[in-house]
């Protein structure tokens, strides 16, 4: 046991000495290992962070929510994306909401949202264009988890009665009102009509369901239905359905499909004129894409590791040649073949570990920098770091095995006499 420990310590010391004596040669050889491990761990970290953000989005929006509309989301339908057919489909209206609520019992929430794009918003001399409004029905906040920075949300009577109250997104509020000026109670003009600001939403960013509340605003669906044709093909109302129990989601999806088919008088042999979307479908599509990116990361890292492995192998061959006499002396005084082989193999592994740890350290520092500057939750996984260490050890074994075997096979007499 003591002998093994001594071999390990000797190998580490000799590897560090190799770094100190031949700085440039060793650095260039380790560079391939460092780049390879960096590529692999950076890709794994980026994908884990992206998956974490997606999971957070799904949990926020509700993985148990059905989004019914004309257009299927990516990955929800197989084959060609027949936009020319989807565009002509009928819009969801409150008629579908009433039908679903009246015929399906196992529902917690059914609500409707109609996004209206490219609106102009005015307050005194301030004017914003290309703003999106989300005209909503009762219970919309229970599905989309609306959080307010100022003011309050709509009452049920304000939404049902078509009240001229409005809730602004954070960026819209900043664009219309000077810093320090409260938007609450102020009147703004939208679609030629005056609206009273009752609240301002927190900054949240765009989510997976394509809701960009920061650059948008909320007001009553009943209000806008008196101003525009909500059945027009230029608009895309979204019907959202949430069951009491997530376990019943598939059953509720079938029931919702049946209710709307009957309401639209679709014959049994005819396809649906609507699509029932789920966030889980997007998650599966993105996970599939991430798996492919993962493979690309491994391929790029693999090429770098291959170059690095040749570099480490070259160092070890040179090292064996430089220490030939020492190896001969060790074998002459009784050093076993396995001890010589282990010594050089461990030295190769230590060199690769140093390169790998430098790559992991770079990933760690960049992750902390990105977290602070971009306000992104970077997932730093012990598993990923362990993978990096494991790959470094494997590369070290592969790089050092042939030089180590050559060193262990040297004849002591010939080795001592060598120049």
Number of strands: 10
> What fraction, in percent, of the residue positions are helical?
55-70%
Rg over alpha carbons = 33 Å
Count of helical stretches = 14
Structural class based on helices, strands and sheet pairing? alpha+beta
Tell me what portion of residues adopts beta-strand conformation. Answer: 15-25%
Question: What count of domains describes the coordinates?
Answer: 2
Helix-strand sequence: HHEHHEEHEHEHEEEHEHEHHHHH
**Main beta-sheet strand count, sense and barrel state:** 6 strands, mixed, barrel
Q: Widest sheet: strand order?
A: 2-3-8-5-7-6
Regions with pLDDT < 50 over 5+ consecutive residues?
none
Mean pLDDT score: 81
Shape descriptor reads elongated
Distance between the termini: 34 Å
Question: How would you summarize this macromolecular structure in one to three sentences?
Answer:
The protein has 14 helices and 10 strands. The protein has 419 residues and is of the alpha+beta class. It has 2 domains: 2-57 and 284-417, no CATH class; 90-273, no CATH class.
Report on this model:
The protein has 419 residues and is an alpha+beta fold. It folds into two domains: 2-57 and 284-417, no CATH class; 90-273, no CATH class. It is 56% helix and 16% strand. It is built from 14 helices and ten strands. It has a six-stranded mixed β-barrel. Strand 6 and strand 7 form a beta hairpin. Helix 2 (23-61) crosses helix 12 (337-373), helix 4 (94-103) crosses helix 9 (249-263) and helix 12 runs antiparallel to helix 13. The longest helix is centred in the last third of the chain and has 44 residues, at 279-322. The two termini are 34 Å apart. The mean pLDDT is 81. Belongs to the ABC-4 integral membrane protein family. The chain crosses the membrane at residues 27-47, 295-320, 340-366, 378-402. It is a multi-pass membrane protein. Pfam families: FtsX (PF02687), MacB_PCD (PF12704). GO terms for molecular function: transmembrane transporter activity.
């Amino acid at each position: 046991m003591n002998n093994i420990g001594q071999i390990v310590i000797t190998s580490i010391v000799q590897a560090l000495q190799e770094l100190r004596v031949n700085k440039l040669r060793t650095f260039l050889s380790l560079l391939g290992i460092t780049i390879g491990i960096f590529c692999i761990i950076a890709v794994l970290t980026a994908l884990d962070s992206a998956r974490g953000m997606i999971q957070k989005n799904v949990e926020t929006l509700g993985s148990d929510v059905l989004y019914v509309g004309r257009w299927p989301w990516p990955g929800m339908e197989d084959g060609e994306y027949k936009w020319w057919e989807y565009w002509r489909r009928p819009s969801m209206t409150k008629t579908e909401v009433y039908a679903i609520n009246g015929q399906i019992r196992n529902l917690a929430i059914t609500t409707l949202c109609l996004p209206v794009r490219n609106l102009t918003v005015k307050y005194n001399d301030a004017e914003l264009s290309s703003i999106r409004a989300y005209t909503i029905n009762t219970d919309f906040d229970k599905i989309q988890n609306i959080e307010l920075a100022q003011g309050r949300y709509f009452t049920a009577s304000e939404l049902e009665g078509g009240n001229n109250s409005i809730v602004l997104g954070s960026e819209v509020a900043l664009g219309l009102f000077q810093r320090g000026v409260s938007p609450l109670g102020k009147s703004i003009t939208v679609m030629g009509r005056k609206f009273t600001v009752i609240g301002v939403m927190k900054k949240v960013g765009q989510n997976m369901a394509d809701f960009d509340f920061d650059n948008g605003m909320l007001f009553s669906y009943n209000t806008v239905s008196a101003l525009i044709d909500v059945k027009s093909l230029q608009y895309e109302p979204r019907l959202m359905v949430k069951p009491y129990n997530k376990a019943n989601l598939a059953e509720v999806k079938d029931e919702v499909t049946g209710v709307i088919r009957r309401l639209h008088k679709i014959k049994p042999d005819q396809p649906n004129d609507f699509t029932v979307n789920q966030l889980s479908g997007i998650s599966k599509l993105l996970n599939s894409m991430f798996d492919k990116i993962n493979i690309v990361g491994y391929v790029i890292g693999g090429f770098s590791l291959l170059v690095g492995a040749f570099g480490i192998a070259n160092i070890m061959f040179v090292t064996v040649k430089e220490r030939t006499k020492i190896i001969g002396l060790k074998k002459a005084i009784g050093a076993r073949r396995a001890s010589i082989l282990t010594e050089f193999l461990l030295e190769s592994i230590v060199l690769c570990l140093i390169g790998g740890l430098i790559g992991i350290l770079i990933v760690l520092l960049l992750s902390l920098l990105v977290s602070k500057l971009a306000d992104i939750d970077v997932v730093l996984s012990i598993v990923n770091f362990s993978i990096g260490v494991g790959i470094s050890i494997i590369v070290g074994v592969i790089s050092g095995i042939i030089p180590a075997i050559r060193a262990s096979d040297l004849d002591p007499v010939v080795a001592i006499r060598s120049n």
